[in-house]
Amino acid sequence: MPGTAELTPPVTAESNLPVTGEPTPAEDLDGKAPLHGPESSKIAEETVADRAASAGVAVGESVAEGVPPRSVGGRRRAPVAPEPAPELSDAELRGALEAILLVVDEPVSELILAQVLEQPAERVGPMLDEIAAGYTAAGHGFELRRAAGGWRLYTRPEYATYVERFVLDGQSVRLTQAALETLAVVAYKQPVTRSRISAIRGVNCDGVIRTLVTRGLVEECGTEPDSGAFLYRTTTLFLEKLGLNTVDELPPLAPFLPDDVEELADATR
Question: Which site from 108, 141, 158, 215 is most exposed, i.e. has the minimal number of CB atoms within 10 Å?
C-alpha cells in the first residue's frame, strides 16, 4: 500500500538456511529439523551405517566387481577354505601303504599313493624304502619292489618252487567254473581287456585272470591304444591242453549262446 513500508526480516546467522528445499547434511531421513554440532555428525554417521547394513555391505567395505557375494543373513562371507587332511603318524602311514599294496594287481606309483592317502609325496617315498628294507631284513617270503615306475609286493625267487607247487597242485588241479568261463571269454574274444571280460561275465575277473596267467593259460599281449589297458590272449599251453593247432579250430560260439549275448558283448567294447 502506498506509504506502507515493506517489512523484511533481518538476515541473521541462524536464518542462513538453504532455500532450495534440499536437506542439510545434518538432517535425518524422517525430515525432522536439522541438527548442528557434534550431535549432527553422530547422527549422519549412524545414518550411513544403517543404509550400508540394509544393503548388506559393511561400512568401509567395497564389493569386488564380478565376484558374487556369499551372503548369510544379508551379509557377505568370505569363502571357507577346505580343511587340510590330517597328517598321519609314521605307524599309520606304514599301515595304510601296506594295506593298499596288498590289494593292487599292478605296480602303483608314489604319486598315486600320496594322492589316495592325502599325504605329501616326500613322506611316501622314504616310507616305501623303509618298508622294503624292513621286509628284506626280516627275511619274509615276500618283498616290496620297484617295478614299472611303481611299487608292488612280490614273492621271493628262492620260494618260487613252493609257490608254483601250491598254485598248480596244491589247491585244485581242475579249473573252477569261474576260471573256465573267463578262459572261454579270452579264447573267443582275444585280444581282450580285463574290463571287457568283467563286463561280459558280469563280475570282477581280476583274481581269476591272475590265476590263469599263473597257470600259463593266458598271457598279456600289449595294450589297448585308446585306454592303455592290458590285452590278454590264450597261450600255446592252452592249445596243447585242448589239443588244438590254432584258436580258429575252436567250435563256433553262436550255437551255445543266446542271440543277444554277442550284441551285449559288442556294446561293452
Answer: 158
